[in-house]
Design a protein that fits this description.
This protein is of the alpha/beta class. Helix content is 46%, strand content 9%. It is built from 13 helices and 7 strands.
Length: 282
């Protein structure tokens, strides 16, 4: 199985631990990742508020590269990146005039035909039966609250792989590998503050505290995410949140690939779990 690979800015920077974790799992599962040649930023949280044409052209260029190099599917582990690529791909498919304009701007033909998938879909594509057959360790003892955040399932007209308000795909996957995910809690798709970590730290702490404290009250002993921004806010900011709200949370924050990797027999150091701020007892 081979995918075009779009790491995005975060996985080659502040969230390199996520990329190491993802790549370790993909290697174990025999999934080949071919990084797109000369990819650029998707525009993330800033471009659409500054220049709508630029916000369309940035993902369009990456989609043009994927089409040029013959990739029918592109894997983007960051939900912000995958959402921007999927959204622009759908816009291109729906508008001949936009296809013409964007092809001129990015100086290559782009049609939006490339399918963009996230980490959950990669594991689903491998098949739960295949994952459980390859697993060498049961995840018993893990009671994760799976946190999807704002962008993994939204906007629903573009992202259709799970229920946008009450998703359950991560829970199903982890339950099959022996974990006991907390399914009934209140904040699995609420915002953590995303890219406001530096610009408005207090708001990020307010939002992230609600998520962490609610998960803990419903019996979770850890969090699972599939987003680098969510991981930063729930993991790196957790000590500041505890200090501000005078409450010990002590919730390790795993990437989905971390727990799947542990089940597959990959050691915690290879998965870069030791690089997380909240220490994980694995």
């Amino acid at each position: 199985m081979k995918y075009g690979y779009y790491p995005g800015c975060a996985l080659h920077g502040s969230s390199y631990d996520y990329e190491r974790s993802v790549r370790a799992c993909m290697e174990k599962l025999g999934v080949e990742l071919a990084e797109l040649d000369d990819w650029i930023c998707c525009g993330a949280t800033a471009a659409h508020s500054i220049n709508r044409k630029l916000a369309t052209a940035l993902p369009a260029r990456t989609l043009a590269i994927a089409e040029r190099d013959g990739f029918e599917q592109v894997f983007a582990p960051c939900p912000m990146c995958s959402m921007e690529l999927i959204k622009v791909g759908n816009m291109l498919k729906d508008s001949e005039s936009l296809r013409t304009e964007m092809s001129e701007i990015v100086e290559d033909t782009v049609s939006g035909k490339t399918e963009v998938v996230n980490l959950v879909q990669i594991f689903q594509g491998c098949g739960i039966d295949e994952l459980t057959a390859r697993a060498v360790r049961k995840l018993d003892g893990f009671k994760p609250a799976c946190y999807y955040g704002c962008l993994l399932t939204r906007p629903p007209k573009d992202l259709k792989f799970d229920d946008c308000e009450n998703p359950g795909s991560m829970e199903d996957l982890l339950a099959a590998l022996g974990a006991e995910p907390v399914r009934a809690w209140n904040y699995k798709t609420e915002c953590c503050g995303a890219g406001l970590t530096l610009a408005d730290g207090d708001s990020v702490e307010d939002l992230s505290y609600k998520i962490l404290s609610n998960a803990k009250k419903h019996g979770a002993d850890c969090m699972v995410v599939a987003c680098p921004m969510c991981h930063v806010n729930l993991d790196m900011k957790q000590s500041a949140i505890e200090k501000r709200f005078k409450e010990k949370l002590d919730l390790p924050v795993y990437y989905l690939s971390d727990l799947v990797g542990l089940a597959l027999g990959i050691d915690a150091k290879t998965l870069c779990i030791d690089k997380h701020f909240v220490k994980c007892g694995v």
